[in-house]
Amino acid sequence: MSEAFDVAALCDAIVEGGNAGANPGANPGADLGNGPTAHPGARQRRAISKAITLLESTRSEHRLLADTLLNTLLPRAGNAFRLGISGVPGVGKSTFIEALGLFLIAQGHRVAVLTVDPSSSLSGGSILGDKTRMEMLSVHPSAYIRPSPSSGNLGGVAEKTRESMMVFEAAGYDVVIVETVGVGQSETAVSSMTDMFVLMQLPNAGDELQAIKRGVMELADLVVVNKADLDADAATRAQSQILSSLRLFGMHGHPDRAHHDRSIWQPTVLQLSALKAIGMKPSVVAAASEPNVAGGLAAFWTAVQTFRDLQTRNGQLAARRTQQTQAWMWERIESGLKSRFRADPAVQAALPAALEAVLAGRLAASVAARQLLELTMIPIKLIE
Ligand SMILES: Nc1nc2c(ncn2[C@@H]2O[C@H](COP(=O)(O)OP(=O)(O)OP(=O)(O)O)[C@@H](O)[C@H]2O)c(=O)[nH]1
Ligand SMILES: [Mg+2]
């Protein structure tokens, strides 16, 4: 039997919780991990969870309700700072998010953590988003950790993540962190839904740079060398090597990323120990100077704030969001057209013969494509 969704009530519970000051972490002096069990946000949490279940449902009648939900929440969304975090498996992303999340909550923020892990649809289990690795954050009333949607290709997973992000923003979460593993295209997907993209690296760069894919490096607004506690010298070496390669990429790379070169934003590489920073009080972090422990976390958040302020003032942030929104819409249109095309009975009937003719060399691939497209509901006008 299908679950019943009262969209209006859901939206009320989501938005009310966000507006009613139901922010148990709003006290900057609050003790970490010490939230009351029956906190005022419990109703909101249930509504968020239900809203996300609705968004992730594949039933067509749910999609209509989900669209209503999104449209209702839209005017309330968009107010969070969206931080993307990527890095190879085991680099310490979850540990870092735990440390950062607790640090931010202690300063009155509300933190949502989402993960993008397209591999989970293959393996049936998420390699990311393991809540047990964010033990304190996952039970904190000011945090909400949402694992990756477990079905769909990368585009589908990314779409659900973006939609969930809107729910959290409408609910008043002001920092949204999206974690993704650095193996493939998911970095691009996450950088295209966040305001700032952070790449985490290990300190064992050695003499040669570790496998840093240039394309991914160009996406990074900030690089963090984690596990600096293991080998401080190696971390410092990695930091300077990565910084020089960032500068190189910035100067000779992508025109789109050219703002890296200007005074607007400098390539920044930090080192820290996520493990050691967990649970440190903000006052301790702020006073810490050694870069490889808590001082690194303080430097990180300062860099994020500097980036946000600069990019807000110079309009880059707004431009980035505009561009992301447009790209998102087009990506969804293209993906929708493709599935409609494949599902079209006329196409399905004609496809095998067309493919056979192409492979046998009797028909040019472009001609076959055009003929198949002509079979679909949208008439294709030949261009010139
Ligand atoms: N020494 C040290 N160990 C760390 C640090 N950060 C994380 N670790 C350890 O590294 C291991 C992996 O950390 P995770 O936070 O799970 O790494 P991850 O990048 O989220 O991993 P995946 O989600 O599997 O991609 C754990 O055993 C952590 O305790 C650090 O700063 N120093
Ligand atoms: Mg992880």
Query: Tell me about the biggest sheet?
Result: 7 strands, parallel
Q: Assign a percent range to the helix content.
A: 40-55%
Structural class, from helix and strand content?
Answer: alpha/beta
List the secondary-structure elements in sequence, H or E.
Answer: HHHEHEHHEHEHEHEHEHHHHHH
The CATH class of the domain at 77-314, by name, is Alpha Beta
Estimate what percentage of residues fall within beta strands. 5-15%
Strand order across the largest sheet:
3-2-4-1-5-6-7
In short:
52% of the residues lie in helices and 10% in strands.
Describe the protein in words:
This protein is of the alpha/beta class and 384 residues long. It has a domain at 77-314: P-loop containing nucleotide triphosphate hydrolases (Rossmann fold). Helices cover 52% and strands 10% of the residues. The protein contains 16 helices and seven strands. It has helices at residues 7-19, 42-56, 60-73, 93-105, 120-123, 135-139, 154-170, 186-191, 214-219, 232-252, 274-277, 282-287, 294-313, 316-343, 345-359, 365-375, and strands at residues 81-87, 111-116, 143-146, 175-181, 196-201, 222-225, 269-271. It has a seven-stranded parallel sheet, sandwiched between helices. Strand 5 (196-201), helix 9 (214-219) and strand 6 form a beta-alpha-beta unit. The chain is globular and about 70 Å long. It starts with 6 loop residues before the first helix and ends in a 9-residue tail after the last helix. Guanosine-5'-triphosphate binds at residues 87, 89-95, 127-128, 133, 181, 226-227, 229-230, 273-275.
